[in-house]
Amino acid sequence: MPDEERVFEITKRVDAPIDDVFRSLTEADRLEGWWGPEGFTVTDVTSDARPGGEFRLVMSGADGAGQLVEGTYEEVSKPSRLAEQISAIAPDGSPLLTAALTFGLQEVDGGTEIRLSAHGTAFTSHAHGMLAGMQEGWTSSLVCLERFLEKSRGSTLKARHDSA
Predict the structure, then answer these.
(1) Residue 3: per-residue pLDDT
(2) Which domains, ranges and CATH numbers included, belong to the chain?
(3) How far apart are the C-alpha atoms of 55 and 47, rounded to whole Å?
(4) If DSSP states are collapsed to H, E and C, what string results for 124-163?
């Protein structure tokens, strides 16, 4: 079927230091604060950001149904590159969809440019809808990351001010 695979690239610039962006892509407590498109939440996040390390979370939409997402880090080159293989997992433990994600980060004008390259493959008819919305979902997710970074920076500045 023609909709079994999808390849795309998204570039987004955020006003945050590259180290903060990289940490937000790899640390469990930070992933929980932004992962997923707008309207989604995540729980039960684990992240062992090293080559061969595991990644796992449960993503829930407005309907409250949880979707297990798990994977493996393929490359972790702090602070400029991150590659991972992730899968949305069916209740029986089989993959619904897999995606190879590569995040390239570069410092630009006091902020960070994020370049996300993705290649997704659907394995079930249910996953074809997920695959069809993957680019839009990741575009929205990067907006959520940007908002998270803005809030985090505000919290850090406030904490610095309060402790001064």
Answers:
(1) 54
(2) 2-163 (3.30.530.20)
(3) 5
(4) CHHHHHHHHCHHHHHHHHHHHHHHHHHHHHHHHHHHHHHH
